[in-house]
Design brief:
It is a single chain. The strands form two sheets. This protein has a seven-stranded parallel beta sheet, with helices on both faces. Helix 9 crosses helix 14 and helix 12 crosses helix 15. About 45% of the residues lie in helices and about 15% in strands. By secondary structure, the chain is an alpha/beta fold. It folds into two domains: about 200 residues, Rossmann fold, CATH 3.40.50.2000; about 180 residues, Rossmann fold (3-Layer(aba) Sandwich), CATH 3.40.50.2000.
Length: about 400
């Protein structure tokens, strides 16, 4: 049985890591011959090293305001995807981050290839911003399409209960069509020897120093501006505290300017995209996730698996990840003062922070391992197509 993943972009991110893990740890009885993406990126090389064929479809060029070209482009996308599905003998297509492109994939359903389509919703904010009349109409259209499509798609996967609740609130009473399948992480990948001396040499720093790591796109969702405000408040009391930011994105230039205005240029280190996240995690003193909204952060799960002391905003699936026991400190999204307070408590109580980190690792081991994710995927895939591969 063959599954093809279709994703918007192969830039480094949580959804891309989910696809990579599902290609590396394929559910028993299944294989992933093809991953199709509309934009290239560094994850392509990682997938190809796994023996997966990667097809780049090209970025969309036309919006609905250019209706004739929009329709022609959509027809071309469907033809290319159908050709890939037939060539790869694809039984099931799973989508990630596609928004309206989800409906082009849904149109591929056939008695032959593919017989099933699964939409994956990775974030609580999956609809377009409705802040202007035009965007509000666009959002309304997306809601209507998702509600109609929910009756035909084979399954809808939400990566957390918060994402499921957001989807149902936006689309309507389609909760019975939504399966919560949490993200997982490869715990073995996170068990690496720390190279703190090498990291400090790279940064031009020397002990004593405290390193706070943040991983995420430089975009509004990830709350870096809140982190800057908290860093200003902490600067005097914690003079050895340095901030390591991994990721890039559309707000990179603006955030760099904010950092300079706050006189933090020597304390905030923009590391860009990195392939050595496990090594960075193990070399740092704490992990900070200041997101304004979230689905279920893979970066957070990786920090938990590395047993790092964690300070995270109580956004989306973050509370689900941390669970009922004290595995990390949380604060209200956007509250810089509360964030600063949580970081101060973490630094002032190192023994308690270490204990929270160890409990976090055990929680990931029990609930968010890649093995648990693959088991859930196996159950879902098999329930959709069954042993004979017949569509429900």
């Amino acid at each position: 049985m063959n599954v093809m993943h279709v994703i918007l972009t192969l830039e480094q991110g949580g959804a891309q890591e989910v696809v990579r893990l599902l290609c590396q740890h394929v559910p028993p009885g299944w294989r992933v011959p093809i991953v199709a993406s509309f934009e290239d990126g560094p994850v392509r090389a990682q997938l190809e090293r796994l023996g997966v064929r990667v097809e780049i479809l090209g970025k969309r060029r036309y919006g609905i305001e250019a209706l004739p070209r929009f329709l022609l482009e959509g027809a071309s996308i469907r033809r290319r995807l159908r050709a890939l599905a037939e060539e790869g003998q694809i039984d099931l297509v799973q989508t990630h981050l596609l928004e309206t492109l989800d409906f082009h994939v849904l149109a591929l359903l056939s008695p032959a290839h593919p017989r099933g389509v699964v939409w994956t919703i990775h974030n609580v904010a999956f609809l377009p911003d409705g802040s202007t009349p035009w965007l509000w109409l666009k959002q309304l259209g997306h809601r209507a399409l998702y509600r109609l499509g929910a009756g035909r798609v084979s399954a809808i996967v939400a990566v957390s209960h918060s994402v499921k609740a957001a989807f149902v609130a936006a689309v309507g009473p389609v909760g019975e069509r939504v399966t919560v399948l949490p993200n997982g992480v490869d715990l073995a990948r996170l068990q690496v020897a720390p190279d703190r001396a090498g990291l400090l040499a790279e940064l031009g720093l020397a002990e004593p120093v405290t390193l706070a790591l943040t991983v995420g796109r430089l975009a509004e969702q990830k709350g870096h501006s809140t982190l800057i405000a908290a860093a200003v408040e902490l600067a005097e009391r914690h003079s050895a505290l340095h901030w390591l930011w991994v990721g890039d994105g559309p707000l990179g230039t603006m955030l760099a300017a904010e950092v300079r205005r706050a006189n933090l240029a020597s304390r905030v280190h923009f590391l860009g995209l990195r392939a050595d996240i496990p090594t960075l995690l193990c070399a740092c003193d704490l992990f900070v996730l200041p997101s304004l909204w979230e689905g279920l952060s893979v970066a957070l799960l990786e920090a938990m698996a590395a047993a790092r002391p964690i300070v995270a905003s109580a956004a989306g699936g973050t509370l689900e990840a941390l669970g009922p026991g004290e595995t990390g400190l949380t604060f209200a999204p956007g509250d810089a003062r509360a964030l600063a307070g949580a970081i101060t408590r973490t630094l002032d109580e190192p023994a308690a922070a270490r204990e929270r980190g160890l409990r976090a690792r055990e929680r990931v081991r029990e609930h968010f391992s890649v093995e648990a994710q693959v088991r859930s995927c196996t159950q879902l895939y098999d329930s959709l197509l069954g042993s004979r591969g017949s569509r429900p």
